[in-house]
Amino acid sequence: MSTLEVRNLVKEFKVRDGLRRSTLRAVNDVSFTLSAGRTVAVVGESGSGKSTVARMIAQLETPTSGEILLDDAAIGRRGRALADYRHQVQMVFQDPFASLNPYHSVEHHLARPLKLHGVARGKDVLPAVYGLLERVNLTPAPVFAEKRPHEMSGGQRQRIAIARALAPGARFLVADEPVSMLDVSIRLGVLNLLARLQREENLGVLYITHDLATARHFSDEIVVMYRGDVVEQGPSDEVILDPQHDYTKTLLAAAPEPSRHGRLRDEVRAELAAG
Amino acid sequence: MTDTRTRTAPSSVPPSAPPTAPATTSKPPRRGLRGRLAGQGKLVVGLGIVIAIVLFAIVGPFFTQDPRDSDNAAMLPPQPGHWLGTTSLGYDVLAQLAEGARGSLMVGVVAGLLAIVLSLLFGVVAGYTRGIADEGLSLITNVMLVIPGLPLMIVVSSYLEVRSLFVVALILGATAWPGSAVILRLQARSLRKRDYVSAAKVSGERTPRILMVEILPNLLPILTAQFLFAVILAILGEAGLSYLGLGPNGSITWGTMLNEAQGGGALTRGAWWWFIPPGLMIALLGCALSLINFSIDEVIDPKLRSAPAAAKSVRKARRAGLDVTVHDDGAPVRSGTDAQKEAVRR
Amino acid sequence: MTATTTAGPLSSAAHAEHVARLTPVLTAHDVSIEYEVDPPVRAVQGVSLTLHRGEILGLAGESGCGKSTLAYGLNRLLKDPAVLRSGEVTFHDADGTDTDVVALDGDALRAFRWDKVSMVFQGAMNSLNPVLSVRAQLEDVLTTHRPGLSRTERGERCAELLEMVGVDPVRLDSFAHELSGGMRQRVMIAMAMALEPQVMIMDEPTTALDVVVQRDILREIMRLRERFDFAVVFITHDLPLLLEIADRIAVMRAGEIVELDTAEQLYAAAQHEYTQTLLSSFPSLLGDFSYDDGEGAGR
Amino acid sequence: AACGGGADDPETTDTSESQSTEGGEGVATDRELVIWAGSQTPITANFNPYAVGVLHLANGGIYETLFAYNKAADTEPISMLGTGFEWNEDGTELTVTIREGVTWNDGEPFTTDDVVYSFTNDAAQPAYLAGAEAVDDTTVVLSFDTPQYTNEFALLGSTYMVPEHVFSANEDAEDAEAELTGIVAWPNAEAPVGTGPYLVDSTSDAAYTAVANPEYWGGEPQVSNLRYIGIDSNQSAEDLLATGQIDWATMFVPEPDRLVDAGLGYLNTQVDPTVLYTCADADMGCSGEQTDVAVRQALSVAIDRGAINEKAFVGLAKEISPTFALLGRDDKWIADGMPAAIEQSADAAQAGEILEAAGYEKDADGFYGKDGETVELTLTSVDGWTDYNNAAKLIEEQAAEAGIKVVASTVSWNEFADSRTSGEFELIMGGVVGTSTADPYQIYRDWFTSGYTTEVGTPLEPGFWNFSRYSNEEVDAAVAEASATNDDAVKADAYATVQEHIVNDVPYIPLLVNASQTFYNQNDYTGWPTEEDLYLFPPAWQGPSSGVILGNLAGTE
Amino acid sequence: MRFYARRIGFYALTLWIAVTLNFLLPRLLPGDPYTILLAKLQRNGDVSPAIQNTLRLLLGADEDTGLWEQYTTYLGNLLRGDLGISVTQFPTPVTDLIGGALPWTLGLVGTATVLSFVLGVGLGAWAGWRRGTWVDSIIPSTTLLQSLPYFWVALLFIFVFSVTLQWFPIIGAYDVFTFDGPEWSWAFVGSVLYHAFLPALTIVISSVGAWLLGMRNMMVATLSEDYITTAEAKGLSRRRIFSTYAVRNAAIPSVNGFGIALAFVVAGSLVTEQVFSYPGLGKLMIEAVRNNDYALMQGVFLMITLAVLAALFIMDLVHGLIDPRARHSD
Ligand SMILES: Nc1ncnc2c1ncn2[C@@H]1O[C@H](COP(=O)(O)OP(=O)(O)OP(=O)(O)O)[C@@H](O)[C@H]1O
Ligand SMILES: Nc1ncnc2c1ncn2[C@@H]1O[C@H](COP(=O)(O)OP(=O)(O)OP(=O)(O)O)[C@@H](O)[C@H]1O
Ligand SMILES: [Mg+2]
Ligand SMILES: [Mg+2]
């Protein structure tokens, strides 16, 4: 079974504040393993380093130290090796409005990776594009292939982005908050699509989110990050139902929960009544 | 009540209509040219003038006499055969104007192109790369930005012994780029961080292709605007240099025409037909290019169009009594209920 | 076509009972708002709503359903190209006078704003003027509406306000860019509290914030509400959140309020289909969940 | 009073007195006379006649020469500080009589010592002057090693008399900034001491003013106040003239009628020829088809001078004599058989005949060539000299009609200066400095003799004007002969030889004589040189004549 | 503080580059000042041998020093304020000429630019505030003003207002027919203002459009910002919203652009000064160019660069005052 493993990943950014330069450790010693057919969720508040981890895995950033291993082999960072890696590991970005180039059609967005990775050539490209569109439930495919990003809704765009990530035939998908920019009513649809693809195609998915509920339900394992550190990691239900670390507990306490309606109001009233 | 008719269209718009993409990156839907130009008065006027001038430059010389033919009487006022009169040497002003249009446009376009190429180099490359390259290029840009252009041009051209049209255009272009470079750099910087650039990288695209295919198209409106701006500046710059006697030698441009008109005492001799047209042509072309820039600005920042348009439509609606609120900014004050009743009646 | 075709929102008997005990502070009747674009957008259509003294009324609905437009309409803040096509908005002051908000103009309108109804906007990040210090912006409100206050009184009031929302008063001299997102939002809330208004409209005041920070701020709002007893219209698309804080919830869709009920009732027995869909879009953190990859949520 | 100056009339009587020309009807006036003599702003106070930046008033208005020569007409020199002069037999001694009773404006008397000093100080002494000596209180003798008849004007008409007691004290002046020493470094800005009709009053960077010298030897000038202003463009000056804000200016105005209609007096004096320099002598290293005399001759007849004058020079220039004698003034020097004025209209046919006779043939494009090589000449003019640029364009057109390909182009002043001194050019539109007296000698010597040129590639030395590299032994000999005599007949013979050659060889293709337009306020002032009484060359910038004119002016009311 | 340190570093560097450019330009091209000067003098007739000699001594002797040595000498001279000698105004030092011209340029260009800025920003703010009204329709016509060649406008003005109507003077910075140089009197000050009017008007007319447009666009953009809505919701008066909330924010880019724009205006004013014979740097420079007076030309160029840098520096300080964000990092 193939795995994508990160080991002791560290990322430091040089930040310049006027003349003084300092380093900011955005990711500090993060390790976890992603296996085919499984989903790992990374949760944590804003700025905790989630995206940085994702970008390092997608090779958009170079780790300061630490290793990324694909099938137990250190990954290549340039040339053929990089292309091979990209072939296997793809990414879906947070903002579907920003991750599609407004100047290009859907077809362009999907055809390019197909061609780049030699998945389809010449006459086969268009059918392959249609195939991808159908896989992400965008039918009729020829209609969607013609469209430009601004002619589609957010959910549809995010589906295109997912299709693009699937185009090279990737086995691992890094999804950085794939639904946080979408309207509540369509979030689940996109997540369900991801879950289905993961099941059907035996994908390994790194699901980055700050929504604990979906993290729990859509992943097998949860990694909780806090200021660059992993503070807790384990099977989803265990982390959510039996949090160990204080930070995880705070996070859980802060998450809104429909079933606990009126809770905050009552808490405050109780507090005020008490003191 | 013409506007009521337009509102009979079904107005139950799906509220969940997709929000439009951020303005800088959106592209108008592909409609016919006519459709796209509708409501773009400034663009239409601007393009119209520019096209007219370009046509004048291209075809004009075939219909006018040789601009260097001195066989006419000197200083003729406008008359049939010499619609804009003649110069002190007996040259036909209209013919010179047409030939000058070629010269000036050529200076403008060459300088504009050079400025754009340089600003792309200094702006986009600096914006897209990081570290030393960026620092270095930006520094050069900033320094060039600060060093005053015309004086530099004057100094450089005064050292040149032969100034062809082309050389003058090159000088103008070489001093006109820093402003655009700064803008392009900022833009490229922000584009570099766009997710679709990252996405293209993850897809395995190479840097040159990313620059050309993903980034450049998004810079097009700005590039066009900067180009047009550089053209205006170059044409004005050429005129200024020519006035100082540092213009291109041996060619006819609107600038050299003005210089000759000035040297020939056109104004004091009452030969307005010699002095006024070249200046007006420059202003007209500049104005037209600015008008086009206006529309480009509105593409880049749709607020520029939508906000005034919104204000206009609301005033229209108010005049039609479609607003029940009371306004203190000049709109007719009417009681809420009256307006409301009227609205309901409709 | 008239603006009164809508049948009014669904609500339960429990709701009617709940409402009967309360006194209204702001009533809106048949409010229709249209964006005068081509083609015109009917963002709010014949909405009637009553806000009661001291209550938190949640306004939920998906993006673009007209929540913000309605909120702006209630406070006469509609910006071009929005036009209030019809509707009555009446403010019932604590001193017993009623104000026809729609008929207000000029100075009267300005005097009404903030003093009676204040507002916290969607993006607090951008609600603060970047070139004015926090103090200047707080004092702006006081000098405009409470011209009688002396300089020192104003200063004291500003400090007091910041303390109230849990921000160190030394921050008075800071500028927006020097504050974190949470702080800015708190400053905005402090500003909204400055005149102790009877109604506060909050348009997604916490969406841009981290859950932990969000929770703190909500707690702050609740606490202040208990203390000053103002009514709150709380707009968000985060239904679970709303369920936790709101007394009543109005669900909006396509410019209309489709359901209006108490939070308990809405959670327990939502009547409108749309409300149910909305509720099911939020998997429970602690409960179970079943996958559904049908086309239902495909938009 | 008649002027001497001829060797055949050694004992000269008093020359014409400047006062004699003073109009009788003039009255004294306080009205400030505003003059533009070509100064540009900023004006820097400098009244040292030896300095480069000397202001116009100094030359004539403050410092005077011994005599005033008339460049514009063949009249006798006017007696200024000198009352008479005499050449010895062989032209190696010049005896000058000095006016008595003249004082410097600081009260010191003007003496023969001052005269000697003015000729012999470091800044002034010409190389050919062997010595100067005061013989008695009123007589100075200048001595030379060779005959110097031809330098009479330089000595008597353009050497300014300066006070020894002031200037000798400043001989070590130092201009630290300019790293300059000697008398030329001294700006003489504070109350300059001269004998002239005016005293400096004030100087600013925009203007300087002068008041009448009450002690002037010729009597206190009638016009008591002068203001010289700096103006930076002809256009401004013309506008100021038109609006009556300046009273005297010499400048190019394309339509003088407008100003004349406005009541201004107007004199157009044409003295300086405009020509095409041709690098003429292949033996001197010149290259290009213009080295063939036939090409030069053909080009010369192909030019429509009338059209050029009409269009490029707005009809203000004057016809030129191919002999370079100034028509009107120097008529007596034009040899018999020489055409007076050059043909004004073009004769394309004749040009063709000349070329065909010399073996040129027309090519397919209608241009003449030889051995398959089309004649192509580049005609340059200085960028921005509009009249020249325009004339060059017209010549290009006219030559083309005669089948001669001329390409007009403009060059920077530097390049122009460079190529004409180095000889690396084909055709240049340029000026010839006219002579200052009624005698073409100076032009013949400076522009046509081989002593005043060098091989192509070697820059001409300053003072060498033979840009065309014309060298003709017979011309050289004839000019030498003319220089050694004061006998008009001998001179005329020599000139005939010169003229015969230069008319045929056309090393400079004559075009016309350039205009110099002087405008003056005749409503408020009288005493100006006029068409009828052209007693001196009228330009405001010309020293010392402008000083003499100033001394002559008076108010009308 | 660090912000300013960086800026100062930048200025120093720019200055150095300008200075070096100035040094290199003339050396890249041949040109012997002696011949040039002499030829210039000879154009006006006789040059006495004495003057020729002195000139040769002064200018002709070109020591064979290395480029680097020349460069250090040049820098040293610069530091001592020695910019060489003007050929046109021989032998006046360039510094004296610049010293005489600088105040005029500063006065004229400075006033005109500030006027144009204030006018443009003011009108632009108003036009932005009144967006969507008839004001919008006059905005495009300002582009016409912007595209008029400066000198063309200036020449027309002189022709119409000074020559034909005789309302304004034709030349100078003050009445050169009355005053013997600058003096401190009301009459003189009045004369200076009177003489500055037309040139300043030309500059203002040709440059106001750019400010107006820029400001108007920024206003339109700013007015849709949330903080404006907030201010409205706060019940602030329209005046206060306009001034403290809208204009102050919208003007920031204009203020930032001021320094850069100044460079443009200075360039344009060069020509204007020439047309009006205004005794400023621009005219000096053009005279220098026309007379191949390289020392003067370079001196003026350097001076203009310095002036622009100084203006930029002042704008940086102002920017720090009006935009608190600038005070922290860059
Ligand atoms: N290119 C960069 N340069 C400097 N600092 C950076 C850079 N990218 C990220 N950071 C910093 O690294 C830290 C982690 O950022 P990251 O984007 O990984 O957080 P995140 O967990 O994804 O947050 P969010 O939930 O807001 O997306 C932050 O403090 C951020 O400011
Ligand atoms: N300036 C405008 N011009 C035209 N239509 C507008 C404008 N502003 C809003 N709308 C439309 O009005 C409708 C309601 O918008 P509104 O901002 O009230 O929605 P919302 O419920 O607040 O959404 P969100 O949750 O995204 O804030 C939307 O369909 C929107 O597209
Ligand atoms: Mg992130
Ligand atoms: Mg909203």
From TrEMBL, chain A:
It comes from the Bacteria. GO terms for molecular function: ATP binding. Residues 4-252 form the ABC transporter domain. Keywords: ATP-binding, Nucleotide-binding, Transport. Gene3D superfamilies: P-loop containing nucleotide triphosphate hydrolases. It holds the Pfam family ABC_tran. This is ATP-binding cassette domain-containing protein. It comes from Isoptericola chiayiensis. The lineage of its organism: Bacteria, Bacillati, Actinomycetota, Actinomycetes, Micrococcales.
TrEMBL record, chain B:
It comes from Isoptericola chiayiensis. It is found in: Cell membrane. Belongs to the binding-protein-dependent transport system permease family. The keyword Ribosomal protein does not apply. Residues 101-293 form the ABC transmembrane type-1 domain. It comes from the Bacteria. Gene3D superfamilies: MetI-like. Signal peptide: none annotated. InterPro entries: BP-dependent_transpt_permease, MetI-like, MetI-like_sf, OppC_N. The keyword Transmembrane applies. This is ABC transporter permease. Its main location: membrane. Pfam families: BPD_transp_1, OppC_N. The chain crosses the membrane at residues 43-63, 105-127, 139-159, 165-184, 215-236, 272-296. PROSITE patterns: ABC_TM1 (PS50928). Residues 12-21 have a biased composition (Pro residues). Keywords: Cell membrane, Membrane, Transmembrane, Transmembrane helix, Transport. Coiled coil: none annotated. Residues 1-33, 326-346 are annotated as: Disordered. It is a multi-pass membrane protein.
Automatic annotation (TrEMBL), chain C:
It comes from Isoptericola chiayiensis. It is a peripheral membrane protein. CDD domains: ABC_NikE_OppD_transporters (cd03257). Belongs to the ABC transporter superfamily. GO terms for molecular function: ATP binding. Keywords: ATP-binding, Cell inner membrane, Cell membrane, Membrane, Nucleotide-binding, Translocase, Transport. PANTHER family: ATPASE AAA-TYPE CORE DOMAIN-CONTAINING PROTEIN, OLIGOPEPTIDE TRANSPORT ATP-BINDING PROTEIN APPD. This is ABC transporter ATP-binding protein. Residues 26-279 form the ABC transporter domain. Its main location: membrane. It is found in: Cell membrane. Gene3D superfamilies: P-loop containing nucleotide triphosphate hydrolases.
UniProtKB/TrEMBL annotation, chain E:
Residues 102-315 form the ABC transmembrane type-1 domain. Keywords: Membrane, Transmembrane, Transmembrane helix, Transport. It is found in: Cell membrane; Membrane. Gene3D superfamilies: MetI-like. The keyword Metal-binding does not apply. Pfam families: BPD_transp_1. The chain crosses the membrane at residues 7-25, 104-129, 150-172, 192-213, 255-276, 296-318. It comes from the Bacteria. The keyword Membrane applies. It is a multi-pass membrane protein. PROSITE patterns: ABC_TM1. Belongs to the binding-protein-dependent transport system permease family. This is ABC transporter permease.
